[in-house]
Amino acid sequence: MALLELKNITRRFGDLEAVKDVTLSIDAGEFFTLLGPSGCGKTTILRMIAGFDAPDEGDILLDGRSLAGVPPEKRPLHTVFQSYALFPHMTVAGNVAFPLEMAGRSREEIRRRVDETLALVHLTDKASQFPHELSGGQKQRVALARGLVNKPHLLLLDEPLGALDAKLRVEMQVELIALQREVGITFVFVTHSQQEALALSHRIGVMRNGCIEQCDEPDKLYTNPANRFVADFIGRINLLEVEVAASGKVLLKLNAEGLGEIAATDPRPIRVGERGAFALRPELIRVFGHKESADLRNRFEGRVKELLYLGDVTLYKVELANGFIIEALMPNAASGRAKFHEVGDPVAVCWRQDAGVYLRN
Amino acid sequence: MKRSTFWLWVASLATYAFLYIPLAVVVLFSFNDSVLNAQWVGFTTRWYAKLMGDGEMLRAAGNSVLIALLSSTIATVLGAMAGLAMHRYHFRFLPLLVLTPVAMPEILLGVSLLLFFRQVLDLTLGFLSILVAHITFSIGFVAVIVRARLAGMDESIFEAARDLGATPWATFSRITLPLILPALVAGFLMSFTLSIDDFVITFFVAGVGVSTLPLQIYSMIKVAVTPEVNAVSTLLMALTLTLIFLASRFAPDVLKGKA
């Protein structure tokens, strides 16, 4: 059974509908992420789950029981705040002990659990320090320890890595995954970073304007986005305007203006003449020299307009016959050779017919 | 030294001299072995001894201390509540209501309180009316200090406390109160200082019979500025300075004007 259920949640602030009729179900043990640009309503949803805000319509159920009217302190869940929200007048140990004291645990148990949890986040030696003496990463770990120590049913995390620098972020991501696996507590994570969402989550709900646009596993979101917004928001993608030329059982023929026919696959029944977008990830495109042959169905000629050498890969921006600039990522795996083409070179871009996705308007 | 710096030094020294020489003179003559404030004769502490034998003066001092203690305690509680309310609810008129007594000319406050006590409440002027008046003008100061303290704080720590299982009361006693404690101490000391040397408002609401130290000093100088007045002024000055020093230790940001 689902641990947390959101049933047709709507929240309005004046005329603005911050959250529109959101329905969501999260299983026990899951690492679930709400991903979206700022102002999409993801934090509002988190605040409603935590009890700092209440939905205007709909209901939130935890373990099958409605949370309506239950104050934050009575909800068996904890939050890790973006600003960490550590109590400045308490030591690290004092901060971590706080939820246990509030739950009325015995002194002995508090001491043992605080020690255990601090060990879990590698902060045993910082127990008697105050928050202002810690680094950003250490504060982050104290906030996590404080949220986990009383073994909540659910841990809400509001952009917890947002204030860390890039290198520390990646380290904390790895720690966070390990931690979640170790404690087995359900995490609901909010972020605007698609990279973070992809790296951490079992499942991601992509939000825009108060609605969930798509809710799926990271690899499915990436390879099979439901619409233009999701395709564009997650990772780099090329979006070509197309018209359906022919539709078979699996095979789809798309017509891109000034370019010709693109072969793609789609099992859905699609009407000929329908307009939509063809979405194609840059790393699925190969860039060949203009004379090299490629045994691929989709082959279009163009000219290298720009290239960005990124070390492990090179990003090519290739201008096609119709003026569309397509992005292709080529791995620089060959030894002693970093770049295959130069700016201005005539090239051909090719991809397998199952590489891209047709998105209906 | 650059020319401009030189004149800056001269100007500031002159300012401080203007401010502090009169005070220094009072202190000096309180130790002068002469009834006249004219010429230095010799060192003595007999004016202080005489003060200790002055029953009226001691009663006035006792009143002052008692009123200061009570009014600043009550003003700290009420001012803290006002400060918390101003911080939490963005009700536009609330700061106006709380802070007006701070900005109001003392004479106006004195007259209006007098009218209120006599015409509206028909209260006999005395200890109670002085106490209420002192509470009235102290609340605003405490509220400002408490609000400044809260304004510098991360709002989410109060939510975090609730989230981690603390009831609203536990959040107040375990988180809010310890965090605003320095502001409360500073506010208390500030109120105490204001109360103990208030003259204008007290003059209006004291009535007959009950006197405070500033009122007593005033009634004494109607005759002449005696060395005894110098002595009691010196003591009052020492107390006030000590309290201001303590207050600045507890809420440095507020009193240094950073808030």
The radius of gyration over CA of chain A amounts to 25 Å
Rounded mean pLDDT of chain A is: 89
Q: What separation lies between the terminal Cα atoms of chain B?
A: 34 Å
What is the largest interface, and how many residues per chain? A-B, 23 and 17 residues
Q: Helix content range of the residues of chain A, please? A: 10-25%
Order of helices and strands of chain A: EEEHEEEHHHEHEHEEHHEEEEEEEEEE
* Major sheet: arrangement of strands of chain A: 6-7-8-3-9-10
Arithmetic mean of pLDDT of chain B: 86
Task: Just give the CATH class of the largest domain in chain A.
Answer: Alpha Beta
The biggest beta sheet of chain A is recorded as:
6 strands, mixed
Task: State the CATH topology of the largest domain in chain A.
Answer: Rossmann fold
Number of helices of chain A: 8
Biggest sheet character of chain B: none
Q: Low-confidence parts of chain B lasting 5 or more residues at pLDDT below 50?
A: 254-259
What does this structure look like?
- Chain A has 361 residues and is of the alpha+beta class.
- Chain A folds into two domains: 2-232, 3-Layer(aba) Sandwich (Rossmann fold), CATH 3.40.50.300; 236-360, OB fold (Dihydrolipoamide Acetyltransferase, E2P) (Beta Barrel), CATH 2.40.50.
- In chain A, 23% of the residues lie in helices and 37% in strands.
- Chain A has helices at 42-50, 92-102, 107-120, 136-148, 166-183, 194-200, 218-223, 228-233; strands spanning 2-13, 16-27, 31-35, 57-62, 65-66, 77-80, 154-158, 186-191, 203-208, 211-216, 238-247, 251-256, 260-265, 275-280, 286-289, 298-309, 313-320, 325-331, 346-351, 357-360.
- In chain A, the strands form four sheets. Chain A has a six-stranded mixed sheet, with helices on both faces.
- In chain A, a hairpin with a 3-residue loop joins strand 16 (298-309) and strand 17 (313-320).
- In chain A, helix 2 crosses helix 3 (107-120), helix 2 packs parallel to helix 4 and helix 3 crosses helix 4.
- The longest helix of chain A has 18 residues, at 166-183.
- Chain A is elongated and about 75 Å long.
- The two termini of chain A are 35 Å apart.
- The mean pLDDT of chain A is 89.
- Chain B is mainly α and 259 residues long.
- Chain B has one domain: MetI-like (MetI-like fold).
- Helix content of chain B is 77%, strand content 0%.
- Chain B has twelve helices and no strands.
- Chain B has helices spanning 3-30, 46-52, 55-88, 93-103, 106-120, 127-151, 156-163, 168-196, 200-205, 213-221, 227-250, 252-255.
- Chain B is globular and about 70 Å long.
- The two termini of chain B are 34 Å apart.
- The model of chain B is unreliable at 254-259 (pLDDT under 50).
- Chain A binds chain B through residues 50-52, 71-73, 78-79, 81-83, 85-89, 98-99, 102-103, 146-147, 150, and chain B through 154, 156-157, 159-167, 170, 174-175, 178-179.
